[in-house]
Amino acid sequence: MKNSIIYAAGLIGAVTARPGVNRYSFAKREVPQEQAHRNVNLIVQESLQLDNPDNIQDTVFGLLGAAAAAGGAGNIADADCLQQATADQAFTNAKAAGDVNGMTFALIYRALERNTGSVGLASVPCESIQAVNPEIAALQQHQDPASDGAAELNKQIATELAVQIASIGGDPTLANEASTFAPGEIGDPTGAGNTCDDENDDAGCINTLGLRVDDLTEDEILAAVGGDAAGAGVAAGNANNATADAGAAAAAGAGAGKKAKGAKAKGAANNAAAACSTRRARRHTRRQAADFGSCTNPSVVFGPPSDGRQEDAFEAADLTSFPHGSALNIGVISGFICSQLVNACDANDAAVALCDQADAAATGLKGQAAADAFNGVIGF
To answer: Whole-model pTM?
Structure first.
């Protein structure tokens, strides 16, 4: 990332809302931007804390230069591998929980830019540790946009990120969440470049301030994943603002916490308004005739799946119209069904809106209860 300003030894910044981790300190400090993607940090931190055998202190440490990162690396001996190790453990935990959103953001976190000592200086790759998860192993961190070849490299990284997100049933357009800042000026004596850092902005100041320069267009992302954003859309929320899930999840009802990971609800009034808006949308939709087009059975089943998985899972009832492998999280299947209604089934707006509502109703539920909730709203 940028920038080398030397601070006196001591406490530099608070790490908020982290039980047992109050502050991080180090003598040599780069101009900070490790909280620029705070929306990503928060979600990954939540997944990491489900099981943290290496005692990694906080996601922010993995985004620092090696000297600073060592202070929160726990049992990870090579601080240049801390970002990968953090992402790998968070991905493992989210996968065990059937949390596609958590897995998606672990992938995004792995691709974020790390701090370096000056504008234009590339960060050191991880070479001493092999990631357990091949999806994490396929990725590397973005590089300072002013460094040699960064524009082309960062685009390649974002493309691979989109492919890996799609492979787990996530929304590949979220790959741009890992995009970084515009290039700074080589030799900038302040070392600040075009960065920001705000530990109180849960949306990520790079997003709030409009400083993120996306690596890929939506067309480029869809081309990279074969033109199909399977599992995209509803399951992951707003592709350009991960924290937008908070309001939608509050309106959706039971279990909405998983969609709103890391995002702070903006008050009871906003939630009540969102819920009211959703109820009005449902009444309006039901006054229209939902036409599912060529896909006549967009329902979900739960039980022994057809793809050989050795445990009960979710899959589409009609695998011809909705060809997707089984999943432990209903959001993977329901999101794909809603996406297919738009992309392949020629369903009308009322049907798509009804599918969105069904997906929201099933969020956070488990097993047959989740399938029943989805099917009940969609009318099957």
So the answer is: 0.56
